[in-house]
Amino acid sequence: MNKNELAKEIYSISHLKGSFKLRSGQVSDTYFDKYLFEGNPQVLGAIASELSSRIPVGIDVLAGLEMGGIPIATALSLQTNLNAAFVRKEAKSYGTCKLAEGADIRGKRVCVVEDVVTTGGQILLSVKELREAGAIVEDVVCVIERHPDGRKNLAENGLKLHALFKMEELVAAGADQDVEHQGEGWGD
Question: Which positions are annotated as binding orotate (predicted)?
Fold first, then answer.
């Protein structure tokens, strides 16, 4: 699957129509459900194949953020043979009491992995904690850059964003697909 086909597939799987209550409390007639592409093994494999080339040279550990970054980091780990760590929103208070489970991050060059970046708020919180735990974090990879504010906010905090798609690319691929399939239940 090439990058354009992948964009169409992600849009086709994840773009839903109906009535959806958003986090803001507003109701929308469309919704983008990222977990639908993350749970599809063929699409997830194609994402890992495309996204792996965006991981900077010299990275030791891929750090998937809870929850959406974890399947992406796992698929990337399988694709690249890099160790993976799974980053909680907060360290658990029992057992190992770790923020990042899996690979050791102390003194390692860590690339944060996320599915969708909008403002980058959770990434910034997690990177602060990863750095406090001894990780060297300068890079973030994501499947979808939803809004340019995320890139700006990350850059202001010394992080470089490497995105596979901008949301506009997926919407354009979906529009192309809607035109290609008019009369077949698409573009209604």
Answer: 118, 146
Quickly count: other Cβ atoms within 10 Å of residue 182's Cβ: 11
Q: Is 89 annotated as a binding residue?
A: yes
114 carries a ligand binding annotation: yes
For residue 120, say whether it is annotated as part of any ligand binding site.
yes
For the chain, the domains span 40-168
In words, the CATH class of domain 40-168 is alpha beta
Q: Is 117 annotated as a binding residue?
A: yes
Q: Which class for 142: exposed (0-12), middle (13-18), buried (19 or more C-beta within 10 A)?
A: buried
